[in-house]
Amino acid sequence: MVVLDFSIVNVALSSIQRELGVSAATVQWVVTGYAIAFGGLLILGGRAGDLYGRRRLFLAGIAVFTAASLAGGLARALYC
C-alpha cells in the first residue's frame, strides 16, 4: 500500500505541475512533503493504536475516510 500511495503521487506530479505552473524542481517538494507527512502520521497512528486499541482506531479511520470521501464527492456537485 505504501508503494501504491507513492506511485499515485508520482503519477499526479505532471498534472500538479501543469495546473499550478511550477517548475519540475518545485513540484518535487510535493513528494518530499508527502513523504514527511506520511511517515510522521504513520508513527503517530502506530502509537495511537497501541494506546487506544487497533480495532477502535481502524473503525475510526474507516469513519473518517468515509466522511472525507462523501465530502469530496459532494463538493463538486454542490459548487458547480
Notable characteristics:
80 residues, mainly alpha, 3 helices, 0% strand
What does this molecule look like?
- By secondary structure, the chain is mainly alpha-helical.
- The chain is 92% helix and 0% strand.
- The chain has three helices and no strands.
- It starts with a helix and ends with a helix.
Relative strand content:
under 5%
Task: Count every beta strand, where a strand is a DSSP E run of 2 or more residues.
Answer: 0
Helix fraction bin: over 70%
Rg (C-alpha, Å)? 16 Å
Mean pLDDT: 88
What structural class do the secondary elements suggest?
Answer: mainly alpha
From N to C, what is the helix and strand string?
A: HHH
State the helix count. 3
Based on Cα principal axes, name the global outline.
flat
Largest sheet entry: none
What is the first-to-last residue Cα distance?
Answer: 33 Å
Low-confidence segments, given as residue ranges, are none
